[in-house]
Amino acid sequence: MSAANDTADPSAERDLTWDEIDALIGDDPMDPPPRDSGTYAATTDAVAPRPRVLLRTEQVTVDRSGGFGALMETIEAPVVELFFEYAGQRLAACDPRDRFFRAVGGGMRVVPRDFATETRARCVLESFGAVDLECLDSHAVPPGSRAHYLLRCDGDVHDYCSFTAWVVPQLRALGWEVELDSGYPYQVVGADEPDWYARVEPDEERPDWFGLELGVELGGRRVNLLPALVDLLDRSHEGTSLARLASRKKHIAVPLPDGRYLTVPPEQVQALLRVISELYEGEDVEPEVLRFTTLQAGALSRLDEIFVDDEAADEGGAIRWEGSSEIREVAEVLTSTPVQKVEAPARLRATLRSYQQTGVEWLQHLRACGVGGILADDMGLGKTLQCIAHLAVEKEAGRLDRPALVVAPTSLCRNWEREIAKFAPFLSTVVLQGSKRHDRYAKIPETDVVITSYPILVRDEERFLEHEWHLLILDEAHTIKNTRSRAHQSAKRLEAVHRLCITGTPIENHLGELWALFDFLNPGLLGDELSFRRWYRMPIEQLGDEERLETLRQQVSPYLMRRLKQQVATELPPKTELVRPVTLGGKQRELYESIRVAAHGEVRKLIAKKGLAASTVPILDALTKLRQVCCDPRLVPMRAARSVQRSAKYELLMELVEGQLGRGHRILIFSQFTRMLALIARGLDERQIGYLSLTGQSKDRQGLVDAYEGGRADVFLISLKAGGVGLTLTSADTVIHYDPWWNPAAQDQATDRAYRIGQTRPVVAYNLFVQGSVEERMLALQQRKRKLAQGILSGAGGKLSLSEDDLEELFAPLG
Q1: 60 φ, ψ to 5°?
Q2: Model confidence over 621-646: pLDDT tens digits?
Q3: N- to C-terminal Cα separation, the chain
Q4: Do residues 397 and 364 touch, judged by C-beta distance below 8 A?
C-alpha cells in the first residue's frame, strides 16, 4: 500500500490486489478471502478499542542483589495480561501491528490501531499500581509468558486485595472488561458494607467472665473473624507496624475461611485491633471466642464507636449485638462520664473548685461501679481534699459502715490527720505510727479513718489483715510500683470493698509501674505481668509502637483521672522553666575526662562479659561519679579529686542565689546528694545567708516547713528524695535544681512544692547542668521518659529504652 493511500479519506473504497493483501496480512491472516475471488473492495473503519485485563499469578524471578544476579528468588506474584478489543477482535497489548483486516460480506475492513487511546488506558492501569514488566530489570517472567504487568513489585496481600476490591470496580465502571483467573488467590467478597455482629455470653465456668464472638454475615452465612483478626494482631506484634501499614493502604485484607478476603478500611481495622488487644493476652492458640472479665467490659463500648457513622449514629450503631445485655450495660456505665451530681456534704469545711467537684463525682462513680481507680491529678491540685470529700460523702450516705484505711509515706501521715481535722472534723481518725501505736489498734472498729505508713503496714501486716476496710487509699501510690516489694504485696493482701490510688506520677520510669498499680487496684485488668511485658512494654518502650500505646491508654482511661494545672487552675501565675548550662574548665574538666575514660572502659568490659542487664549496679556507680564531678569535685571519693579546688556549677549557684535574694525572691534548692547540700550550706554560712535544710535525717518536717513559710529564712535546702512529696511552700517563687535526675517526675514534683494552689507570684525553675556532660544527656533521657508518661496520661506518643547505644552516649567525651 502506497504512502498516498495512507493519507486518503478513511471512508474511501478501492480495489486491493492479492499481493497487497498478502503483504499487509503477513503470516497471520484473519478470515482471508478465497484467492479465486479476484479483487476485494476494502473500507478503512475507525473503531474505539475496549481494554480487557486478566488477573492471575505467575512464577516471577526476582534479583535481590541489586542488579548483580547474585541473589535470585522465585515468587508467586500477581500479573496482568492486557488486551484491546477492536470490533470483536482481541489484540495483546504487545502486538506490534498498527492495523488489521476483517472480511465482511463482499469486502474487507481495514481497522487501524488507536494507539492514543491504548496509551491512555496503559496510564490508567499504571496509575493504579501495575508496573510494566519491560521497565523492571529486577523482575522477570518465564519465557513465553503472556503477562504484561506486575502488580506492585513491593506489594503484599493488602495491596493485591485492595486492587481487587477498589481498582477492579473502577476499571469496570470505565467500560473495561476485567476477568479474574479461577485460581487467583486475591479474590474478595462482593459485599460493600458487610453486616457486622458481636455476640456476648457469660462464661459457664467462671463468674464475672464473658466470651465475645465477632464477625460478619455474608450472603446469609455467619463468618467468625476473630481468628483472622487475632492473627493480624500477632503479626503486627512481630514487627509489622499496623500504623505504618494503615498509613499507606486503602484496605486491610482479612482472610475468610473459604480462601477469599474481606477488605476493611484501615482505620476500622486499627480500632478493632485496639479493642481485641484489650481482651486478648497473646495466647498461643487463635481463639474462636475472646474471654474477658467484667473489668475489661469497657472495650465493648468502643466496638459501637467503630461502626457508627453519621447516618447510623441516630440508630445507635451499625454493629448488631446478640446474647447477654448485662455486660454491655456494665461497659456503658464504666466508660460513661459520671452524670449523677454529688452534693458536697454540708459539714465539709471547704468550697470545692469545679474540677475538684468533678473529681469527687468521679470517685463516687468508681465506687458505684465497684472498681478501683487512680486519681493522678497534677501536683498541687488538691488530691487529698478530693479524697476527704469522697470520704465525707460516704459517711453522710451511711456507707462508711467500717473504717477506711489511708496508707501514706511516713512523712505524710500527720498531714492526713491535720487535713481531715481541718476539712472534715466529723470524721474520727486514728494514726498508727511510732512505737506507741500498738495500744491504738483497739480503736480501729470505732474509727472512720485509720492512717498509717507503708513501713508500718509491712511490719504489722497481720494486724491489718484482721479487718475488712470500706475504702483502702494508697497515697503517693508509686511507692508500690515494685511488685516484688513488701509494700506492694502487703497492700494487695488487704481486704477492702473499694480501692483507690493517689499519685501525680503513676509512671516514673517504665510501664511496669503502671501495671503494678492496677495489679493492686483491679487485678486481671491488664493481664499477668509477663503477658503485659510482652504485649505492651516491649512494643511501646523498645519499638515505639503507637498502636499499642493507644490501646493501653484506652484500656486504663476509665480508671484514671488526670488534670493538669494549665487545664483547670487557670488563676495560677505563670511558671517558667530555665536551663543554665555550665562549662567545665581546667582541672575539673581534666578530672571529668580521666574518670570518664576509665569508667567507660570498665563498663564496656562488664557488658561484654555479663551483658547489659547484669551490669546495672557498676554502670550506675560509674555514672554517679561523673555526676559528682559535675556537681563539685569534693563529692568524689578519689585521691585525684582532692587537688581540684574549684567547681564551676557551685560558683554559678552562689552567684544565682545572691542575685535572686537581692531582687526579693525566696528560693528552694534541690539536690539528690545530701553531701552537696552540706557543701552549699557551708557556702551560705560563709556569705552569712540564712537557710533551712530538709533531708531524710530531719525529724520535724512540718516544723521546718512552717518556719520557712513564716519567713525565718529565704533559702530552703531540700534533698530531692525527702522533699519531693508532701510539702506546700508557696511563699517561694524560685526553684533551683542543682543536679538533674533520671526521673523527670521527681523534679516536676519538687518544683510543684512552690507551684501549687495558693501561689500568687510567677515561679521560675532553674535547671543547672554541665554542658556536653552526662548531665546534659540525662536531660535528654528525661524528655523521653516524660513523653512515655504523657502517652498514657494524655494520649501523646512516646518511646523509651536504655540500650548500649544510650550508654555510649552517656559516656561520650565532654562537648
Answers
A1: -120, 130
A2: 888 888 999 999 999 888 878 888 88
A3: 83
A4: no
733 CA to centre of own chain: 36
| Residue 499 C-alpha from the chain's centroid | 26
Place of cell 541489586: 66
Phi, psi of 65 (to 5 degrees): -95, 5
- Maximum alpha-carbon separation in the chain: 131
Residue partners of 458: CB distance under 8 A and separation at least 6: 486, 487, 490
pLDDT in tens, 542-581: 888 888 888 888 888 889 999 888 788 777 788 888 888 8
Residues 6+ apart with CB under 8 A from 130: 80, 149, 150, 151, 152
In 87-240, the DSSP E strands lie at 89-92, 99-104, 107-112, 130-132, 139-140, 149-151, 177-180, 195-202, 209-218, 221-224
What's the one-letter identity of residue 492?
A: K
How buried is residue 770: exposed, middle or buried, by Cβ count under 10 Å (0-12/13-18/19+)?
Answer: buried
Residue 8: how many other CB atoms lie within 10 Å: 12
State pTM to two decimals. Answer: 0.70
E strand or H helix that includes residue 611 = none
Which is nearest to 420 in space by CA: 469, 395, 385?
385
Cell of residue 83, nine digits = 488486551
pLDDT of 801 over the 50 cut: no
Distances (CA, A) of 215 to 197, 289, 293, 654: 6, 11, 21, 69
Cα dist from 58 to 126, 148, 256, whole Å = 19, 12, 23
Question: What's the pLDDT tens digit per position in 734-785?
Answer: 999 998 877 777 778 888 888 887 788 888 999 998 888 888 888 777 676 6
Please give the Cα distance from 429 to 450 (Å, whole number): 6
Residue type, 434: G
3-class DSSP state of 19? helix
- Estimate the share of the chain in helix, then strand, then coil, as percent rounded to the nearest 5: 45, 20, 35
The residue ranges of DSSP E strands in 661-705, in sequence order, are: 667-671, 692-694
Q: Cα-atom radius of gyration of the chain, to the nearest Å? A: 37
Side chain identity at 457, as an amino acid letter? L
The rounded distance, in Å, linking the Cα atoms of 368 and 382 is 22
**Lookup: cell for 18:** 492479492
Bridge partners, residue 239, by sequence:
none
Name residue, grid cell 490486489. Answer: 17
Distance of CA 54 to the CA centre of its chain: 43
CB 153 within 8 A of CB 138: yes
Q: Interior CA angle at 757 toward 752 and 758, to 5°?
A: 110
Please state, in angstroms and rounded to a whole number, the distance separating the CA atoms of residues 621 and 626: 9
Q: Smallest Cα–Cα separation from 512: which of 543, 486, 487, 540? A: 540
